Amino acid sequence: MPLRFEELDFQDTPMGEISLRRRFDPAARRDVYEVRLGDEYLMSSLFVVAEEALATLALDLLDAPDDAALRVMVGGLGLGYTACAALADPRVADLTVIEYSGPVLDWHRRELLPDTAGLATDPRCTLVQDDFFARVAAAPGTRYDAILLDVDHTPRHVLHPNHAAFYEPAGLRAMAAHLTEGGVFALWSDDPPDEEFQASLGEVFAEHSAHLVPFANPITGGESSNTVYLARGAARR
């Protein structure tokens, strides 16, 4: 009989207590991996369609030939689905994943997550413990063909107050300096498209769009959706 619940890891972090849990979900009829920060659920392996779409939609937008050697940055490692989806594109030659939480990096290095096992040892992938928001606010060094971000719940519902400035035009403009010409920025959000945030994107990027990504929800027995924002090209001034 499957184990109904197991806490795989629990650690204190500067942002609060973080834990990785595995439970058997009778509706999905499989083991589910969940991450909590304090009393707040951050992510679940039940719902990964939009996390994967964050990578595939962004990379599909790039005008790059099959033999391109794309350089990609992912902000937020989480359960690893976005990073693995990016590596599934044969054009991706270098993937840098910026993750604030040491325990999250440790889960992947210990291969506690079977769906994304091998990510930490993929020669194209570099896992870095750092603050994504501080890194993209600084002057650019390396430039990326795509920057994929999945840290906060939404541009309005952030995990830390310091993140809020990133979603304003000035923060987005600083991040855009880390992109190559024609590079793509993509953002995951738990909410429907936000007009105010799209207006901020429009101040920085020549092109932007919001894509609803539907997925089956075994908890409700219906369909849910997340949003993936895409943006590229400098806006005219």
Word description of this protein:
This protein is an alpha/beta fold. It has one domain: Vaccinia Virus protein VP39 (Rossmann fold), CATH 3.40.50. The strands form 2 sheets. A 7-stranded mixed beta sheet has the order 7-6-5-8-9-11-10, with helices on both faces. Helix 1 runs parallel beside helix 2 and helix 5 crosses helix 6. The longest helix has 13 residues. The N and C termini lie far apart (63 Å). The model has no long low-confidence stretch (mean pLDDT 93).
Series of secondary-structure elements, N-terminal to C-terminal: EEEEHEHEHEHEHEHEE
Q: How many DSSP helices?
A: 6
Shape: globular
The pLDDT mean sits at 93
Q: What's the CATH H-level homologous superfamily?
A: Vaccinia Virus protein VP39
- The CATH architecture can be given as 3-Layer(aba) Sandwich
Please state the structural category: alpha/beta
Number of domains: 1
Q: Level of helix content?
A: 10-25%
Q: Tell me, what is the CATH class?
A: Alpha Beta
Rg calc: 17 Å
Largest sheet entry: 7 strands, mixed
What's the CATH topology name? Rossmann fold
- What's the number of extended β-strand segments? 11
Q: Strand-residue fraction?
A: 35-45%
